[in-house]
């Protein structure tokens, strides 16, 4: 079990809902690292109690000994230092930076772009045709950018499993669902290397566990 500065065992609270891809990503990392954690159902709200944990009211957030942290990439970096094995960032500083660079492009230039259409894709609302058009063009640009950086041999950033693989699985999972719902197209069409990686990651034990739990509700 990971220990804090006083050497005591750490129990981490994971706040959010299983349907959230970022919640799922952090849950998979907690499992991957063999850390002790408990899931606490906490929908996104602007309630003060939630904002103390996560200042934009989003999920996930974590609690550690009465302190809180939001933003999946911050939490992922913390978990990788808290429990260094298995390492999910390369020890070489430049290579570690490249992994985070890839994550930024996956998040910002693909997933966040696709999310513009989330209200129509999954929540019965409508987005404008103009938004759909600009989203499509921006997604094409984002996928090209990501493809330049993705190694996929066999993992996203190269020979070793890294945080970028977890973002690949959970960010492309959501983005692909949105693209299917809005355009009836496959976001990963023409990106066979990413498709193959997604299939491999779906069988990775920590990720498979999260997906099985999600199906249970
Ligand atoms: N940048 C944040 C994004 C978190 C995020 O967008 N969470 C979504 C669920 S997957 C959420 O809470 N949405 C509700 C809202 O925006 O109010 C992260 O990486 O953790």
Fold and architecture overview:
By secondary structure, the protein is α+β, with helices and mostly antiparallel strands. The chain folds into two domains: 12-82, Glutaredoxin (3-Layer(aba) Sandwich), CATH 3.40.30; 93-204, Glutathione S-transferase Yfyf (Class Pi), Chain A, domain 2 (Up-down Bundle), CATH 1.20.1050.10. It has helices at residues 21-32, 48-53, 72-82, 93-114, 118-123, 129-149, 163-183, 192-202, 205-216; strands at 12-16, 37-41, 61-64, 67-70. Strands 2-1-3-4 form a four-stranded mixed sheet, covered by helices on one side. The protein is globular and about 50 Å long. It starts with 11 loop residues before the first strand and ends with a helix. The mean pLDDT is 96. Glutathione is lined by residues 20-22, 44, 57-59, 71-73.
Cα-to-Cα separation, first versus last residue: 27 Å
Query: How many domains is the backbone divided into?
Result: 2
Strand adjacency order, main sheet: 2-1-3-4
Largest sheet: 4 strands, mixed
Ligands, ions, cofactors: glutathione
Supply Rg: 17 Å
Beta-strand residue fraction:
5-15%
CATH class of the largest domain, anyone? Answer: Mainly Alpha
Beta strands, count = 4
Residue ranges: pLDDT <50 for 5 or more in a row? none
Question: What is this entry, summarized?
Answer:
The protein is an alpha+beta fold and 217 residues long. It has helices at 21-32, 48-53, 72-82, 93-114, 118-123, 129-149, 163-183, 192-202, 205-216, and strands at 12-16, 37-41, 61-64, 67-70.
């Amino acid at each position: 079990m990971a220990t804090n500065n006083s050497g005591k065992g750490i129990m981490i609270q994971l706040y959010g809902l299983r349907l959230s891809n970022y919640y799922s990503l952090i849950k998979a990392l907690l499992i991957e690292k063999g850390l002790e954690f408990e899931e606490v159902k906490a929908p996104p709200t602007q309630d003060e109690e939630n904002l103390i944990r996560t200042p934009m009211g989003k999920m996930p957030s974590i609690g550690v000994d009465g302190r809180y942290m939001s933003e999946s990439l911050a939490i992922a970096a913390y978990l990788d230092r808290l429990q260094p094995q298995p390492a999910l960032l390369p020890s070489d500083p430049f290579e570690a930076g490249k992994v985070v660079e890839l994550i930024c492009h996956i998040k910002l230039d693909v997933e966040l772009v696709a999310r513009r259409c989330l209200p129509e894709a999954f929540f019965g609302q409508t987005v404008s045709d103009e938004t759909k058009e600009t989203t499509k063009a921006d997604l094409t640009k984002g996928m090209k950018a990501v493809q330049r950086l993705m190694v996929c041999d066999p993992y996203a950033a190269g020979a070793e499993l890294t945080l970028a693989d977890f973002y690949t699985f959970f960010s492309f999972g959501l983005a692909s669902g949105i693209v299917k719902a809005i355009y009836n197209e496959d976001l990963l069409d023409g990106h066979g290397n990413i498709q193959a990686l997604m299939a491999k990651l779906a069988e990775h034990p920590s990720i498979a566990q999260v997906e099985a739990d999600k199906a249970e509700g």
